[in-house]
Amino acid sequence: MSDFDVIVIGGGMAGISVAYELAATHRVVVTEAEAQLAAHSTGRSAAILIPSYGSETARPLTVASQAFLLDPPPGFTDMPFMSNRGALWIARPDQATSLEPVAAAAEEAGTQAIPLSAEEAVEMVPVLRPDRLHGALWEPDALDMDVAAIHQSYVRGLRQRKGEVVTSAPVSRIQRQGSAWVVEAGDHELTASILVNAAGAWGDVIARLAGVTPVGLQPMRRTAFMVGGKDEWVKWPMVIDADHEFYFKPDGPQLLCSPADETPTDPGDARPDPLDVALAIERINEATTLEIRSVRSEWAGLRTFAPDRSLVIGPDPEVPEFVWMVGQGGTGIQAAPATAQLTAALVRGEGMPDHIAEAGLDLSAVSPDRPSLSSGE
Fold it and tell me: Are residues 103 and 170 in the same domain?
């Protein structure tokens, strides 16, 4: 049996980042079900930070994360995490009002969203069909992210702070013994006074094992695939349909494409549906002159939402030694630093960090005790 102060369940970006933050003051262990860390949502990200994207609670956390990602602490990394990309939101004539909420979200996030005519959008991305465009918004502050480098830096930082990581260790039993949690994870039996649930799509599964009321998490499948590209496409921005019907962005010499689907599913190793791939190809070909005919690779990941689509962060109202860090809904990478800092502060019994409060987060809107959460039963 190994004794710790905190057990973090989940070795993706959420679990590793909060473990890193907590390891400054606590003895921490991360337990991961898979043989490799970041095998699910983290490893299948679109790898871009878009300040205007996400829920009303995700956007302030993204804003509050940017300083860390753009200028990490000394010794945290030896390479930049971010590079310029930009996002171009496009709208068809029948989507004339669909750019308005994008502009409003950008204004709220304090980022630029510059209106463009159809002609200006085509000048930026020449494959767009002008007859299919009503207009566009240019978001220059969207940044490509090196997700693997960010995750690996958190892992390295965690180990430098003497935190531990166990892999191939699916959690099979969670019990309370006095004031301690006892967790069986693979061949390991771990004990700690605090349990942090950063299990993503499996968040409610972990809650049930711990005898804690679920919050009603719903995993959603998101499909993506790669198609061949050209060298002159490398500097294009990410192109996003205003109603989230598709997106595409350069990824080296290829294009990463998606129908931006949200298909309810059970926690598991998500697989792409050929119909979703075909739908994305149809939509992108209608909007552009790309004439996509074949796919080089395809995959799917899970984006997990609470019933109100807001994050769930903080101690459980009935079992405060059980701390939630779930429901990122596709913003878990871009908002990871601030989300981890906030969760760690709540574990320590501290208030919301100043930089997160200044970004405009309403702490009650992410609390596990908020009325909008269901029991999930």
Answer: no
> Considering only CA atoms, which of 171, 168, 179, 167 is closest in space to residue 207?
171
**Encoded tokens for 283:** 């939509």
Residue 208 DSSP code:
H
β partners of residue 171: 185
In a domain, 73, yes or no: no
Q: Please provide the DSSP assignment of 105-167 as one string.
A: HHHHHT---EEE-HHHHHHHSTTB-GGG-SEEEEETT-EEE-HHHHHHHHHHHHHHTT-EEE-
Residue-wise pLDDT tens digits, 62-94: 999 999 999 999 999 989 999 999 999 999 999
| Domain housing 205 | 2-68+147-216+308-365
Among candidate residues 255, 281, 305, the one where a domain is terminated? 305
Q: What pLDDT score was predicted for residue 150?
A: 96
Q: Say which residues have a Cβ less than 8 Å from residue 149's Cβ, sequence separation at least 6.
A: 77, 79, 81
| pLDDT over threshold 90, residue 253 | no
